Amino acid sequence: MSGSITDTIARELGVKDIQVAAAVRLLDEGATVPFIARYRKEVTGGLDDTQLRELEKRLVYLRELEERREVVLAQIEEQGKLTKELAQAINAADTKQRLEDLYLPYKQKRRTKGQIAREAGLEPLARALMSDPSQDPTVRASEYLNPEAGIDDAAAALEGARAILAEEFAEDPELIGRLRDFLWNNGVLESEVVKGQEEAGAKFSDYFEYAEPIKRIPSHRALALLRARKERVVRLKLDVPTPEGGAHPCEAMVAEHFGIRDAGRPAIAGYGIWSATPGR
What we know:
Layout: H1 5-13, H2 17-28, H3 33-39, H4 41-44, H5 49-78, H6 84-92, H7 96-103, H8 113-119, H9 123-131, H10 137-141, H11 154-170, H12 173-186, E1 188-193, E2 209-213, H13 219-230, E3 234-239, H14 249-257, H15 266-271
Antiparallel strand pairs: 1-2, 1-3
């Protein structure tokens, strides 16, 4: 993130850096927002209660962001994977979510299907089929059998290759950001009652069959839905309208991002990937 925290807050509030710096000093000394707004106006250049509350909120957020940024940079550097371009992207991240999206591929996690597939030597298969979709996937996959790793046939090899690609798709920060924005603007949250829970979950009966655009759901209703799910009364699903006979919009976005299209070619069809999207 360019500039200091003080510069950023001053720009966001439309006030002078010196006003923000003065308010930050007072907050760090233990003064409360009401105290500063009432008794220290001459120090902050007249910042009012609303400005000071927003300043305090952003100060906490941006400081936490900077602390997390340092941790992320250090952990990726320890892995020997911190490139100049990645460091620039991390330093430019202006939200916690963007920072975590960039960190996701390097985050230590439990062994995944993709990792197991890589350990079984299936990454070259995934690369080969993506680079040349005209190949017969079953024939190519037969070259990567590894009974010791549980890869006994071409179907198992292709499943492993798919797991590798799916993991990479799910960890692409640009794609994740686009999908998140798309789902927020277009997603519909649906709930349905779990069979047999009608009586026990009667207090949640409003949500036994319910659907609403996610961005319009007020906080109290969101909390009720999450509680109903936690108590196993309802199931929740976030989806978007899909054209009849067409690709799911999110699948189409993934395919477009990675330049994938079906066009009847064996390798793409073998992956069950989408059609009617631009690319390879």
